[in-house]
Design brief:
- The structure holds two protein chains of two kinds.
- By secondary structure, chain A is an all-beta fold.
- Chain A contains no helices and eleven strands.
- In chain A, strands 2, 4, 5, 6, 9, 10 and 11 form a seven-stranded mixed beta sheet that branches. A four-stranded antiparallel beta sheet of chain A has the order 1-3-8-7, with no helix packed on it.
- In chain A, a hairpin with a 6-residue loop joins β7 (65-68) and β8 (75-79).
- Chain B has strands at residues 4-7, 10-14, 19-25, 32-37, 43-49, 52-56, 59-64, 69-74, 83-90, 96-98, 102-107.
- Chain B has no helices and eleven strands.
- In chain B, strands 2, 4, 5, 9, 10 and 11 form a six-stranded mixed beta sheet that branches. Chain B has a five-stranded antiparallel beta sheet with strand order 1-3-8-7-6, with no helix packed on it.
- The chains are: A mainly beta, B mainly beta.
- Chain A binds chain B through residues 6, 9, 31, 33, 35, 37, 40-45, 48, 56, 89, 91, 93, 98, 100-106, 108, and chain B through 4, 30-31, 33, 35, 40-45, 48, 86, 88, 90, 94-96, 98-101.
């Protein structure tokens, strides 16, 4: 197992385009989390899943954002009609029940 | 007051110096994480600890559960240690609360 994998590592997109990121957690981890980190700040919670169920969404997650985890394994985070303010590092983490978290290396999005 | 506070926010030191970065938290925890992020790079997990002390190479992490405090130490610091170091703590709502990070710059 290679840990939590995020793809792509970097994404540059034009304003108004849609982007999708993928997170592959550790296979036996049932919980999966998405965080966003803007420049100079610590990561902030966006949403999380237990298996395929999306249990909570932050108010930071506007209607342009959607996250899925269709089979309780990998997850995707889609941003529609990207804005420059969406430029950030998008971080995925997973864990199994009460055990510690494993972090992905993140996807850095730049909206130009 | 933030639930996870790190100090200092910025630290510049000479190569070879002993480095200490502190993290204080106000939430109840199961484990605390120390993460490293190089400029323009992804996040790397350094330690997860719930008690005592862990060591990996030149890095040492300690935690005092009663005082809700953790420290990350770097011995014989090197310019390649220059990065942002982030403390992260899961709270009772099962969300990870991240500190704002400590930006470390080691001068050759």
């Amino acid at each position: 197992d290679t840990g939590v994998s995020q793809n792509p590592r970097h994404k540059i997109t034009k304003r108004g385009q849609n982007v999708t990121f993928r997170c592959d957690p550790i296979s036996e981890h049932n919980r999966l989390y998405w965080y966003r980190q803007t420049l100079g700040q610590g990561p902030e919670f966006l949403t999380y899943f237990q298996n395929e169920a999306q249990l909570e969404k932050s108010r930071l997650l506007s209607d342009r954002f959607s996250a899925e985890r269709p089979k309780g394994s990998f997850s995707t985070l889609e941003i529609q009609r990207t804005e420059q303010g969406d430029s950030a590092m998008y971080l995925c983490a997973s864990r199994r029940d009460v055990y510690g978290y494993t972090f992905g290396s993140g996807t850095r999005l730049t909206v130009v | 007051k933030n639930e996870v506070e790190q100090s200092p926010q910025n630290l510049t030191a000479q190569e070879g110096e002993f480095i200490t970065i502190n993290c204080s938290y106000s939430v109840g925890i199961s484990a605390l994480h120390w993460l490293q992020q190089h400029p323009g790079g992804g996040i790397v997990s350094l330690f997860m600890l719930s008690s005592g002390k862990k060591k990996h190479g030149r890095l040492i992490a300690t935690i005092n559960i009663q005082e809700k405090h953790s420290s990350l130490h770097i011995t014989a610091s090197h310019p390649r240690d220059s990065a942002v170091y982030i403390c992260a703590v899961p709270n009772r709502d099962d969300k990870i609360i991240f500190g704002k990070g400590t930006r470390l710059h080691i001068l050759p």
